[in-house]
Design brief:
By secondary structure, this protein is an alpha+beta fold. It has 4 domains: 42 residues, no CATH class; 48 residues; 86 residues, no CATH class; 131 residues, no CATH class. Helix 1 crosses helix 2. The protein is elongated. The mean pLDDT is 90.
């Protein structure tokens, strides 16, 4: 075979040449052409390059597939997280601004005006950032309950001020947000309800006495003290031992406050309490002791002091008497 093969002939021979199927004479002619023809030499090199093993190619395809799956899974995870967060945030916003929670007496205040037929009630919040909504008024056998939901202010609910006119025919009690505010024709203050809730039957129950004293604001009003109890025989006694040093003017005020305000309340709120005492030191370091008995308190009131603990309305009457 002549050695001046054309490119077309060489390209036809290359498959057999690369596989080693051509004769020596053909090989020499092809090699001679390849030495002077870069294009044909490049084709020969491409054909002679080792083929990628089938297993490796399959593995490569599997890796590419897994990468694609991971990318898609990653996008799905990110989307799922974003959707979950959006749902949570929407739920929180719905709870805070729309659904809310039952309104409670904390931060709530009210005023009322009653005539023979109805109560004009105004409710508002002393806290900023509070709105009331979905007011509901129910009368169950003479007990009226007014409830609402408390939410954060928004365009939907932006006010904490509410007015209600409540017919009073046959009504014995009016409650708002779990707080008794009117009973048997008497307006009940939240402070009186705190006192009524602190009632206890026994002098010897120190935790209960501390709750009574806290409801009466004794420490903040009169000064720090320790308790001393007499429970061995009647009359059972409760002594407040004040630790401050009092001037003559302060001592006079303390004696008056204890005798005419606090001691009667203490006897009303502690069922078996028959004697209230208090001690303190004056500026000349003299220890002073004062005592008020149950009989003394009863003589100063229109009726026995224990009767005033029968109901919130009765207790409110006692508070009004003592403050007047």
């Amino acid at each position: 075979m002549k050695n001046d093969l054309t490119c077309a002939v060489v390209r036809d021979l290359l498959p057999s040449f690369v596989e080693g199927l051509t004769s020596e004479e053909t090989n020499r002619a092809v090699e001679s052409h390849l030495s002077v023809c870069p294009d044909c030499a490049a084709r020969r090199d491409a054909m002679a390059a080792p083929a990628e093993p089938a297993e490796k190619a399959e593995q490569s395809r599997e890796v590419d597939y897994l990468k694609t799956v991971r990318r898609k899974s990653g996008r799905r995870i990110v989307l799922a997280i974003a959707c979950t967060l959006a749902v949570i945030l929407a739920g929180v916003a719905l709870k805070l601004f729309v659904i809310g929670e039952p309104a409670s007496r904390e931060g709530m205040s009210w005023s009322m005006r009653c005539d023979e037929t109805a109560m004009d009630l105004r409710v508002y919040s002393t806290w900023s950032g509070v709105a009331y909504c979905r007011w509901d008024l129910k009368n169950n056998d003479g007990i009226v309950r007014l409830t609402a939901k408390q939410v954060l202010p928004s365009l939907l609910y932006d006010s904490a001020d509410h007015r209600e006119r409540i017919p009073l025919e046959g009504v014995r009690e009016v409650w708002i947000a779990g707080q008794l505010i009117w009973q048997d024709g008497i307006s009940i203050s939240s402070g009186t309800m705190d006192l009524y809730a602190a009632k206890t039957p026994y002098v010897g129950d120190i935790p209960a006495l501390n709750r009574v004293a806290t409801a009466m604001n004794i420490q903040s009003g009169c000064g720090p003290y320790t308790n001393s109890l007499q429970t061995s025989h009647e009359p059972y006694g409760w002594t407040l031992e004040f630790s401050n040093i009092y001037t003559e003017k302060q001592a006079a005020w303390l004696d008056e406050t204890m005798e005419y305000d606090l001691a009667p309340l203490m006897m009303a709120l502690v069922e078996n309490l028959g004697e209230v005492s208090w001690t303190y030191r004056t500026q000349d370091d003299a220890l002073q002791t004062r005592t008020v008995t149950l009989s003394q308190v009863n003589e100063a009131l229109p009726r026995p002091v224990k009767d005033y603990a029968a109901s919130p309305a009765e207790l409110q009457q006692l508070c009004d008497l003592l403050q007047g």
